[in-house]
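We close this part of the discussion by returning to an individual protein. Part of our work consisted of pairing the sequence of a single chain with a tokenised description of its backbone. The amino acid sequence and the backbone structure tokens for this protein are reproduced below.
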Amino acid sequence: MHTSALVLFSGGQDSTTCLAQALSKYERVETVAFDYGQRHVVELEARLNVLREIKARFPHWAHKLGEDHLLDLAVLGQVSDTSLTRDVAFRMESSGLPNTFVPGRNLLFLTLAAALAYRRDLQVLVTGVCETDFSGYPDCRDDTIKAMQLALSLGMDKRFLIETPLMWIDKADTWRLAHSLGGQDLVELIVEHTHTCYLGDRTHRQPWGYGCGKCPACELRARGYERYAAALKA
């Protein structure tokens, strides 16, 4: 039986939903984030607000929520020439992938998270990667995650479980999952305090939260919220 988890927690909608699910399942939950020189570094500030609000609004989860970790991964920004780490416009590359793809990002995240979990004696790694409603990132695929789970377990001689609660659901279902876990309070927390916008825009308030409303992350979040809200009214 697994009793503890480390959630890869950026402070966005997806990782907040994953954190809520982990808190509903496990006795001890810790969080980890990575500073890799991302343009939307404001997410690292937003995540602290999310953690504070979860503790305040959900006292039955608060005692389970343990230490938060922030790891410096500046080297990833140094080797990546992408629109998330450089001031360039969003576009599709000749590879067929958007230039928001940061090569190796999730592989490095999971490796460092596993090393931290090893030291902290945490059994489960939780990440919000998704193969259903995503931009084609190869390191978000289910096969990639399964391969990482095997490699990390063998390489550290510790049986890790990597959970991907969002792998086969779309953004509308992610909103629904949040509602099922924490009701309207959690939905409102996600709207008001999480951050997804690639441009780091915290000035424009949309029905689904703060963001420019035009970048790929905002468009995906907006479409999901619209479908979720429409279903509630039906």
